[in-house]
Amino acid sequence: MRRLTPYLLALPSWMWLAIFLVVPLAAMASVSLQTGNVIDGFVMTFSFSNYGDALGTYSTQLVRSLGYGATATAAMLLIGYPVAYWIAFKGGNRKSVYLFLLLLPFFVSFVLRTISWGFLLADDGILLGTLKGWGVLSADFHVLATSFAVIAGLTYNWLPFMILPIYVSLERVDPRLVEAAQDLYASRGTAFRKVVLPLSLPGVFAGVLMTFVPATADPVNAQVLGGTGNTMIGNIIQTEYLVNNDYPTASALSFTLMAVLLVGIFVYARVLGTDNVLEAAAR
Amino acid sequence: MAEQSPPHTPPQTPPDTPTDSAIELEGVVKEYVSHGEVVQAVKGVTLDIAEGEFFSLLGPSGCGKTTTMRMIAGFEEPSKGVIRLHGRDVTDVPPNKRDVNMVFQSYALFPHMSVWDNVAFGLKQKKTPQDEIKRRVEEMLAIVDLTGREKRRPREMSGGQQQRVALARALVNRPRALLLDEPLGALDLKLRQAMQLELKRIQREVGITFVYVTHDQNEALTMSDRIAVMKDGLIEQLAPPREIYERPATTFVAGFIGTSNLLSGTATGGVLKLGGGRVLVPGREGEVAVTVRPEKITLTTQEPASDVSALPGTVSEVVYLGTYNSYAVKLADGAEITVFEQNAHDATVTAERGDSVWLSWQAQHSYVMGS
Ligand SMILES: Nc1ncnc2c1ncn2[C@@H]1O[C@H](COP(=O)(O)OP(=O)(O)O)[C@@H](O)[C@H]1O
Ligand SMILES: [Mg+2]
């Protein structure tokens, strides 16, 4: 009995995983191999061609999504790392205030926030309208409905998920390590490169995972800020499910996206595995 | 036309003062602003540490030892005053350009690097050739007895081993002075005593100036060539251990170092009359304070001769401490005096609790302060 106790204690979480992850995944896997339509119903035909067809039709959007996701993730890293660094090392006793400010936008719904960006960036909106009024920008200048708008939206929406894990890892770096490096003849820059950066890599690793996956799969930004020419795979899946009611195609696309992301994460973890990263940094 | 300088020319800037002092502090003050108030952590320290010396900064927690050391290392800039290393004014020189290395209180080893990479860090920064790095790191790890542990990470080592890695990481650079901030503070007593001897041996071997910060008077007394006793950001006394112990300059030093007995009163004709006895203070008149070390006092049941200081009292406590006995003796005026008696011959005690005894000591063992 003693020996079983830990497993019994873990039971609720296993049940949770089973009910909310495994069952829906299995259902979706099954649907992705069926044929039919909403009116007559779907039947299992082990139609693996669903995958080929879906990919053939929507490969552009899939590749675009990965590109947007990667670009936005890179942008978040470039913006987020310095912010996390600043809060962790220069935040003093106001750290929690800054973290709260960072999370403040989350009190407004994701969709609403994105729509507000739509207002802000509208061709004759507060920002562009004013600048055009002053003659700073030409009248036909626009931001909305460009890939830039979508990537900017993704970057804005997921940025805190990049900052928080990096902040956590930086916060744990003992400032005396930096002093020790400087004492051993390292300049400020070298001390950062050799000590702070390597020690924060686990946070960077987590931050990239936590932002790249949702940003790549996100349908809202492309829909609200992207116009017609920047459709992402998330939009396609949504449309196939909710508008076209083509459940097999939607499921096949979802699975494909999941597989691509999982493979990507795996490769990323292997190539940039934290231990290897740390070894490399010590050289 | 400028001459090609050979590799071993001394630094281009001539030293400001031609001395063999390693570290000089002149009127150094450090002020912090905390909660809108100016706090003086160091209130004006002047000292001169000689090349090759084992120098200790000793004092209670909060007296400014760490701040003083951090200014020498370059992590803090003095608010006032000048710091010179080997005659060169370094007051505004950043830590990475100073030829001193520091051993941090909690070691501050790089957790993501192996022992080898930790120790080699400074040499790599100075662009030392690979083969020389290898030779010197190996040599240093042998000195601190860590050969064979090169690949370990700091967290895989015991406190004592981490301590030695920290020492090796600093010493391998052959700094002209090594700064140690309570380096043994985190170790247990036994290991601490072993490391004290070890540090002393290493210091003799490498012949580098050591500046040692501690709040442990025993540590300072056993290891140092000279000690600066600090209190509230000022140096109370700067002298060799023996002198600090035998001739404390202030009542604070007397109280802080070892156990000491403090007697005070008004002296007339070179004698201080106290509770039926006398303390000889040759040549002194008026208000005086006298300190006597417990081991200098002889405890007898007979009244001693008239050429020594002698006080009568009652034994209030006897503690057997192995190599010696410690007595607490209450004087007629209520003051309590501690006396140590060597257990040289047999294990018998001279007096028991409640016995009337005489305390006596030679005039030269009274250390007289004040007027
Ligand atoms: N960064 C700082 N800001 C404000 N006060 C400080 C700072 N560093 C030290 N102090 C104050 O200066 C005094 C001396 O500190 P420190 O040099 O660390 O003492 P020690 O090492 O002898 O224990 C203490 O009262 C401490 O509170
Ligand atoms: Mg200290």
From TrEMBL, chain A:
<keyword id="KW-0813">Transport</keyword>
<dbReference type="Pfam" id="PF00528">
    <property type="entry name" value="BPD_transp_1"/>
</dbReference>
<feature type="transmembrane region" description="Helical">
    <location>
        <begin position="99"/>
        <end position="121"/>
    </location>
</feature>
<feature type="transmembrane region" description="Helical">
    <location>
        <begin position="250"/>
        <end position="269"/>
    </location>
</feature>
<feature type="transmembrane region" description="Helical">
    <location>
        <begin position="195"/>
        <end position="215"/>
    </location>
</feature>
<keyword id="KW-1133">Transmembrane helix</keyword>
<dbReference type="InterPro" id="IPR035906">
    <property type="entry name" value="MetI-like_sf"/>
</dbReference>
<feature type="transmembrane region" description="Helical">
    <location>
        <begin position="141"/>
        <end position="168"/>
    </location>
</feature>
<keyword id="KW-0472">Membrane</keyword>
<dbReference type="InterPro" id="IPR000515">
    <property type="entry name" value="MetI-like"/>
</dbReference>
<keyword id="KW-0812">Transmembrane</keyword>
<comment type="similarity">
    <text>Belongs to the binding-protein-dependent transport system permease family. CysTW subfamily.</text>
</comment>
<keyword id="KW-1003">Cell membrane</keyword>
<feature type="transmembrane region" description="Helical">
    <location>
        <begin position="65"/>
        <end position="87"/>
    </location>
</feature>
<feature type="domain" description="ABC transmembrane type-1">
    <location>
        <begin position="62"/>
        <end position="268"/>
    </location>
</feature>
<protein>
    <submittedName>
        <fullName>ABC transporter permease</fullName>
    </submittedName>
</protein>
Automatic annotation (TrEMBL), chain B:
<dbReference type="InterPro" id="IPR003593">
    <property type="entry name" value="AAA+_ATPase"/>
</dbReference>
<keyword id="KW-1278">Translocase</keyword>
<dbReference type="InterPro" id="IPR017871">
    <property type="entry name" value="ABC_transporter-like_CS"/>
</dbReference>
<dbReference type="InterPro" id="IPR013611">
    <property type="entry name" value="Transp-assoc_OB_typ2"/>
</dbReference>
<comment type="similarity">
    <text>Belongs to the ABC transporter superfamily. Spermidine/putrescine importer (TC 3.A.1.11.1) family.</text>
</comment>
<keyword id="KW-0472">Membrane</keyword>
<feature type="compositionally biased region" description="Pro residues">
    <location>
        <begin position="7"/>
        <end position="17"/>
    </location>
</feature>
<keyword id="KW-0547">Nucleotide-binding</keyword>
<dbReference type="InterPro" id="IPR027417">
    <property type="entry name" value="P-loop_NTPase"/>
</dbReference>
<keyword id="KW-1003">Cell membrane</keyword>
<keyword id="KW-0067">ATP-binding</keyword>
<comment type="function">
    <text>Part of the ABC transporter complex PotABCD involved in spermidine/putrescine import. Responsible for energy coupling to the transport system.</text>
</comment>
<feature type="domain" description="ABC transporter">
    <location>
        <begin position="23"/>
        <end position="257"/>
    </location>
</feature>
<dbReference type="Pfam" id="PF00005">
    <property type="entry name" value="ABC_tran"/>
</dbReference>
<dbReference type="InterPro" id="IPR050093">
    <property type="entry name" value="ABC_SmlMolc_Importer"/>
</dbReference>
<dbReference type="InterPro" id="IPR003439">
    <property type="entry name" value="ABC_transporter-like_ATP-bd"/>
</dbReference>
<dbReference type="InterPro" id="IPR005893">
    <property type="entry name" value="PotA-like"/>
</dbReference>
<dbReference type="GO" id="GO:0005524">
    <property type="term" value="F:ATP binding"/>
</dbReference>
<comment type="subunit">
    <text>The complex is composed of two ATP-binding proteins (PotA), two transmembrane proteins (PotB and PotC) and a solute-binding protein (PotD).</text>
</comment>
<dbReference type="InterPro" id="IPR008995">
    <property type="entry name" value="Mo/tungstate-bd_C_term_dom"/>
</dbReference>
<protein>
    <recommendedName>
        <fullName>Spermidine/putrescine import ATP-binding protein PotA</fullName>
        <ecNumber>7.6.2.11</ecNumber>
    </recommendedName>
</protein>
<dbReference type="InterPro" id="IPR017879">
    <property type="entry name" value="PotA_ATP-bd"/>
</dbReference>
